[in-house]
Amino acid sequence: MPLLTAAQRLELYYWMRLTRTFDDAMVDYWKQGRGVGGTFSQRGHEAISVGSAYALAAGDFIAPMHRDLGAYLVRGMEPGRIFGNLLGRAVGVSAGRDANLHGMGDLNLGIAGFVSHLPQSLGVAVGAAMAFTLRRQTYVALTYTGDGASSSGMFHEALNLAALENAPVIVIVENNQYAYSTPLAQQMRNPNIAARAAAYGMPGVVVDGNDVDAVYAVTQEAVARARAGGGPTLIEAKTMRMRGHAIHDGAEYVPADLLAAWEARDPVLTYGERLLEAGVTDTVELEEIGQRCAVEIAAAIAFAESAPLPDPATVTQGVYAA
Ligand SMILES: Cc1ncc(C[n+]2csc(CCOP(=O)(O)OP(=O)(O)O)c2C)c(N)n1
Ligand SMILES: [Mg+2]
Prior knowledge:
This protein is α/β, with parallel strands linked by helices. The chain is built from eleven helices and seven strands. It has one domain (6-305): Thiamin diphosphate (ThDP)-binding fold, Pyr/PP domains (Rossmann fold, 3-Layer(aba) Sandwich). Helix 1 (6-31) packs antiparallel against helix 10 (267-277).
């Protein structure tokens, strides 16, 4: 694996910090009753979404799920467009058609809209990967799903087809220990989701989902294999959902000591500490990055707030019917 340069590691830190800053601002906004509908906190998932997306190249494709804000940002979606989407504004990615993370696709950026029905995005990603092969292109598709969704039918169908077709696709399961209020042990017997890969005849890798360097490394390896014609990989990134399922959920059912143990392993804070220890940066520079993120997110929110709702006359645009 190519070692990341100091500059690249600082970039990883920046993207995680930007994701965290967006998330904190979003959660505050919703708790003040200013948001529309529900919203999903990304807290705890930053290293997975950022580290994996960072391993892709131009032309590659992602099909994200609802805790992949970092991947949208790394792949070039501006925070203002995303916040605009959350507020249902005309400048939002879906132009106000969806005030959430669904439908936030932009094919110009190689991002599929998130399919709400879990884990249907896997089928989209496998299809995209098969298309790359048919067109003799060396791009890869990367998709994400949750521990709960990994017990759903489409997960098995998609992975089986991906293996059979040797599709250049990487499937990342974000094992955050819970699917809504259901802990992993209450929905599957095997504690390692990556073990399921053997059933389809593909490599299955477990990675520490709070370690962005590690997530980058395993994804980069899987991407290189897929690009070289070596087929799909299943990656299980173990982490913890640090907030409720969505903004309305206080998650009282999660044991406090479990949360505390994961809090000590916060992916953003521990990465900052690691970079300091490695002499890659100093506290002044980390603080500057934090300030930069705060300014960018404040500007994104101001941009979204000042944008109009969609013009009702455009309501039929982007609507497809047979
Ligand atoms: C087919 C389907 N059933 C139910 C839901 C409602 N739902 C949305 S997220 C979620 C929990 C998913 O848990 P997991 O896959 O572990 O992802 P996480 O939210 O923990 O990141 C559920 C049940 C859905 N979106 N799709
Ligand atoms: Mg989960």
